[in-house]
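Hi all, long-time lurker, first post. I run a small reading group and we've been trying to get comfortable going from sequence to structure in the token notation. Rather than ask abstract questions, I figured I'd post a concrete chain and ask someone more experienced to write out its structure so we can walk through it together at our next meeting. Sequence below, copied exactly:
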Amino acid sequence: MKEYSNKCYEKNKKKNKPTLTIKLDESLKKIKKYLKEKGENHPKGLKNIALNIPSPIIELLKISNGPELNPEVIILSDKELPDFNVEIEYSLKDNDLFSNTSNYLFHFSKSINGDFYSINLNPNSSEYNYIFRFSHEELAPIEKWKNLAEFLNDISNGYYD
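-- Answer (accepted) --
Happy to help. Here is the structure in token form:
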């Protein structure tokens, strides 16, 4: 019996398994709960929709407009986002790192140490909707998630705790 179980286990290990997927609304619920459990005062959610902000980021800002999820992830408010994007763009250009790909990045969050998070909005890219964490030193991606939902799920599950 034990031999049969081991054989089945090994056979099952070799099968391709679907990757875990999580929907944005599920992650937003988890973030809402996460913010509530932290018990800190977070800014109220966004009421008026800013047209120049990508829709997944707007959904997050509706929960809290500029929350600090932890020192490693500080979501910027709708008022801070335009200036922050210009600032990052200048940094990339000053360091000769601005490229065609950079045109499609929307920077929405930063960490206490200066790293920043961006979403890829290029529909022709194989990494469309990916979230990238950029190092503030090299101005290059050091981590990535497949989408905002996956990123928020990791944060709410204590990824940086």
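A couple of things your group might point at:
The chain has one domain: 22-156.
Helices lie at 2-14, 24-38, 55-63, 81-94, 148-156.
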